[in-house]
Amino acid sequence: MRFQFEELVETFAKHLKEQDILVLPEVYYAGGSAAKDISSRDLALRVSAAGRAAFYFERRADSIPFIARLAGKGDAVLVLGRGMTV
Fold first, then answer.
1. Could you count the other beta carbons within 10 Å of the beta carbon of residue 52?
2. Fewer CB under 10 Å: which end of the chain, C or N?
3. For residues 64 and 86, is the Cβ–Cβ distance under 8 A?
4. Whole-prediction pTM value?
5. Neighbours of 74 (CB within 10 A)
6. Phi and psi (nearest 5°) for 50?
7. H helix runs in 1-86, sequence order
8. Domain for residue 21, yes or no?
9. Is the pLDDT of residue 84 over 90?
10. Residue 66 belongs to some domain of the structure
11. CA distances (Å), 10 to each of 5, 16, 43, 50, 62, in order?
């Protein structure tokens, strides 16, 4: 995420609509030599500072009740991830 961090911030800030909500769990590190110097929290804070609704959850499972409370009839919930388990 470090290499595209600014682009991610710009993209979310530009394309999220007023009614959109971005929910970010912590980055999944699969081991190896990946640097852990950027967090999903950093991204959520920057997107929020740009005036968009962005929320961070340290534990992926904690985001589920949050989304369930917010999602209403006719809303779309898009879930993206890699090797995601809940």
1. 20
2. C
3. yes
4. 0.81
5. 5
6. -85, 5
7. 5-15, 40-49, 60-70
8. yes
9. no
10. yes
11. 9, 10, 10, 9, 26
